[in-house]
Amino acid sequence: MSNIKRDVFHPSPFRQGVFVAIWLVLAAPFLFGGIAMREEGMIVVGVFVSLLLAPVSWFVVFQVRLVFTDEGIVLRNYPWNLETSWDNVSEFYRQRGKEGFILLVPMESKGADNLARSVGREAGVNNAIYRGGHPELAADRRFIPIEPFGFWLRHGRLADVVAKHRPDLVA
């Protein structure tokens, strides 16, 4: 998919901002307090916490993404990468908090298996962070949850991009 036209969406600004807020709460007081008080130990702790948070923040902000191409849909997310063709999409579910694509045929991939195994678990698609919306379909590997990207459905061009590829899904 590297040489073809694609539309890429990252999680909502709120979800990205959560990691900045976590840094502000956990690391910034040590950094700024250490600088203000000229206390090297506080600065070291602030740098250490910042270095621990940086990879997670980088991952969420730059690696988690929803990609649309002429061939289909790709969701890059840990611990699953989900991919399907447009022909396999039967419905674009747009209810807030439960957004996703319902598929005709189950996905056959490690990512789809990981998603199916996570249904019902605290860290799975039923939790408040990543609800998923259709646990029974996710368990059957027939649902691509896009709830973290729902902001772009309401305040961006996500629906327009879907309509560009499959107008019948947004009619």
Q: What percent of residues adopt helix (DSSP H or I)?
A: 40-55%
Spatial sequence of strands, sheet with the most strands: 1-2-3-4
Q: How many DSSP helices?
A: 7
Termini, distance in Å? 27 Å
Largest sheet: 4 strands, antiparallel
Give, in order, the helices and strands: EHHHEEEEEHHEHH
**Can you tell me the residue ranges where pLDDT is under 50 for at least 5 consecutive residues?**
none
Beta-strand proportion = 15-25%
Cα-based radius of gyration, to the nearest Å? 19 Å
Structural class: alpha+beta
Task: Outline the structure in words.
- This protein is α+β, with helices and mostly antiparallel strands and 171 residues long.
- The chain folds into two domains: 6-63; 70-169, no CATH class.
- Helix content is 44%, strand content 19%.
- It is built from seven helices and seven strands, in the order βαααβββββααβαα.
- The chain has helices at 13-26, 28-37, 40-63, 110-118, 135-139, 150-155, 158-165; strands at residues 6-9, 65-69, 72-77, 80-85, 89-93, 100-103, 143-145.
- The strands form two sheets. It has a four-stranded antiparallel sheet with strand order 1-2-3-4. A three-stranded antiparallel sheet has the order 5-6-7.
- Strand 5 (89-93) and strand 6 (100-103) form a beta hairpin.
- Helix 1 packs antiparallel against helix 3 and helix 2 packs antiparallel against helix 3.
- The protein is elongated, with a radius of gyration of 19 Å.
- The two termini are 27 Å apart.
- The mean pLDDT is 85.
